[in-house]
Amino acid sequence: MVLAAVLLVIVVSYVDSDDYCYNEPHCDPYAWGDTFPSCHPLLEEHHSPINLDHPITRNESLGSLHLEGFDVIQTGHWTLRNDGHSVVLQVGNGMSVSGGGLPDVYHTIQLHFHWGGPATNGSEHTMDRRRYPMEMHVVNMKSIHPNMSAALDDPTGLAVLGFFIDVVYADNVQFGHVSQKLSSVAYKGQTAKVKPFPLMSLLPKHNMSQYYRYYGSLTTPPCSPVVVWTLYEVPVYISWSQLAQFTSQIFSTEEDAEQVTPLQNNFRHIHPTFSRVVSGSKEAKLLRGMASCPLRSAVAVHLLQIILLAGFISGQ
């Protein structure tokens, strides 16, 4: 337990920095390299995120990952935190990922989210150049490393599971474990205790064999190229109101700040794949028809449906 607590503090220290932000022109992701040299996207560097597009090579050896402890309720409590850059759920110990072509066993540390604005999409990765409304990252550290510093010196020190998040009309009841706590962490620095729940309930559990694999970097400073990325093809679905809780009700500033700033568009720009191979798992559909429409188009369709329904009702 002590080791797990130390690891959580170390992880938070890397992402909780006031030296970078997303919303202001002087410190958007394109300027991170001024403060963090490793964030400069130099030629042939393995930066993330990327656009998932053809050509993609199917790898028949990439089966489902083994997610140890994801289907049970862990002991103790988890902590949800607004770090000014995202909403982070620190999950303690007891869970790990392995298999599926990963080079080792990785301990699960935390998960966090990236989103856009009220009328814009905000996933970090894109599929066929289309951006989803949100993206969730489950961060895992190679078990042989005693701390994050050691992991950041290893080209495969971290394994991140990425999940696109799309929008439907009904609430995702399981996602409520997170969304119902968001009002308690609306402002930077606020935390809330979360009763542990089976983490698998947040994931597209019937489609976990469909994913893409590539080698890249952290998408926040220090942008270290140490991540084995696993991006799942089938998205997680939440409701419009659950999405709005992120895009309109989370702030990158403290509650008592002179000017309160909404936390929006907290995603890094797309980087070239260069010579990297992007592999599809054995059961991946290889992009066919999986990308969602841009949020603005979805909003237009939603409004059109309301108008048509209103016209139908008034004609009765």
Give an overview in words.
There is one protein chain. With 316 residues, the protein is of the alpha+beta class. It has a single domain (2-314), classed as Alpha carbonic anhydrase (Carbonic Anhydrase II). 16% of the residues lie in helices and 25% in strands. Strands 2, 3, 4, 5, 6, 7, 10, 11, 12, 13, 14 and 15 form a twelve-stranded mixed sheet that branches. Strands 1-8-9 form a three-stranded mixed sheet, with no helix packed on it. The radius of gyration is 19 Å and the shape is globular. Reversible hydration of carbon dioxide.
According to CATH, the homologous superfamily is Alpha carbonic anhydrase
Cα(first) to Cα(last) distance is: 64 Å
Q: What's the helical proportion of residues? A: 10-25%
> For the report, how would you describe the main beta sheet?
12 strands, mixed
Outline:
This protein has 316 residues and is an alpha+beta fold. The protein has a single domain (2-314), classed as Carbonic Anhydrase II (Roll). It has 5 helices and 15 strands.
How do the helices and strands line up, and which of them pair or pack?
Blueprint: H1 2-15, E1 51-52, E2 57-58, E3 66-68, E4 78-82, E5 87-90, E6 96-98, E7 106-115, E8 126-127, E9 130-131, E10 134-142, H2 148-151, E11 158-168, H3 176-179, E12 191-194, E13 211-216, E14 227-239, H4 240-249, E15 279-280, H5 295-314
Parallel strand pairs: 1-8, 2-15, 11-14
Antiparallel strand pairs: 3-6, 4-5, 4-12, 5-7, 6-7, 7-10, 8-9, 10-11, 13-14, 13-15
